[in-house]
Amino acid sequence: MVKRIMIFIEGTTFYTKFPIFLFSKYGYKPIGNAVEIVNGWQKQGYEIYLCSYVRKGRYRFIKRIIDFYGMKYTEILCREKGEQYSEIVERIKPNILIEDDCKSIGGQKEWCITNVRNELKEGILSIIVPEFKGIDDIKINE
Q1: 135 domain-assigned
Q2: Tens digit of pLDDT for each residue in 24-70?
Q3: Which pTM does this prediction carry?
Q4: pLDDT at 102
Q5: Domains in the chain: how many in total?
Q6: N or C terminus of the chain: which is more exposed, having fewer CB within 10 Å?
Q7: DSSP string of 84-105, one letter each residue
């Protein structure tokens, strides 16, 4: 069985510093031990899908940042024009979805999991962490 973890990048595993994050990798900084934790899950055999709020046109930018910090991944996901985060979740069908609580932008209505179809949502372990607090406290057992 394929084991997939989808993780939102900004606010969950990386701090972003405005306005630097718009044009420089130095505007992104890993939160806590995010890089080591994600790399550990990858070593355990999980496929790692990192989801960014940057659009597809800025894919190379976000890829350079993730590669700079050495975070391992299967794929980096960016939305196409008009695409919703829930559509990405439905396409990837992760076993586990990790995202922050989106407190600064409206809360639960902004979560990736919120608008996922119920029949798919039931098969996803949704883990919501406080915005910019990181994933250090998450334990995933095989």
Answers
A1: no
A2: 777 889 999 999 999 999 999 999 999 998 877 788 888 999 999 99
A3: 0.90
A4: 84
A5: 1
A6: N
A7: -HHHHHHHH--SEEEEE--GGG
**Cα-based distances in Å from 1 to 48, 50, 97, 120, 140:** 15, 20, 17, 17, 16
Position 138 in a domain: no
For residue 19, what pLDDT is reported? 64
State both tokens at 127: 């883990």
Closest CA to 72 of 49, 90, 99: 49
Domain CATH number, residue 10: 3.40.50.1000
Domain assignment present for 54:
yes
Segments forming the whole domain that contains residue 86: 4-129
Query: Is 24 part of a structural domain of the chain?
Result: yes
What is the rounded average pLDDT of the residues 108-131? Answer: 91
Backbone angles phi, psi at 65, to 5 degrees: -65, -50
Residue 89 pLDDT = 95
* Residues facing residue 14 across a β-bridge: 10, 30
Residues 6+ apart with CB under 8 A from 27: 16, 17, 18, 19, 20, 21
